[in-house]
Amino acid sequence: xxARRAIAALMVSVAALLLAGCDKLFAPAKSPFQGVDVTGxxxxxxxxxxDATGRExxxxxxxxxxxxxxxxxxxxxxxxxxxLSNLAxxxxxxxxxxxxxxxxxxxxxxxxxxxxxLAQYVPAxxxxxxxxxxxxxxxxxxxKDFHVYANAREGKPGEDYTVxxxxxxxxxxxxxxxxxxxxxxxxxxxIASDLRVLLNG
Length: 201
Prior knowledge:
By secondary structure, this protein is an alpha+beta fold. It has five helices and ten strands, in the order αββββαβαβαββββα. It has helices at residues 2-26, 79-93, 115-121, 136-145, 188-200, and strands at 36-37, 48-50, 56-58, 66-72, 101-107, 130-132, 150-153, 162-165, 169-172, 178-182. Helix 2 (79-93) crosses helix 5 (188-200). The chain starts with a helix and ends with a helix.
């Protein structure tokens, strides 16, 4: 009787070990990213706008670099400056590799964000950052392609207004494929870590 109980206990233990091994065998691989991995997404397949000099820019212009696309506007009180500051800090943490990262800031407020304003505002965070704008229709197409929400909340005549918009940023790899979405509060260290993975991928 005791022998049977011992054998039964041993079999239960072996079964538990096998199940544990199966869990490890079939568990999904841990992602190397801090941001949200959206590899294979159809977001952001095309971006065609103009920079502060009036030059037309597209994602293909930056092929060979990791590109981060952020959306916002120069009158944004808090989230947009935080996003650009975090991206600038992340790029700085990459050291010499930072030269292979291009940040594009797409305005969601083309009515106020004239090229001369973008030329002052965007490079203030990092001289390599590029601000992009276009007609309201062109900007709307880009926000739609990136699945970004943007809606101006008009105030009274003569008063300032705000623009409600999605605050995430998007990272594309050197081949121009969409890879990651960064939450607006993701720390610069985490962003830099993810960008380094893409740079070395």
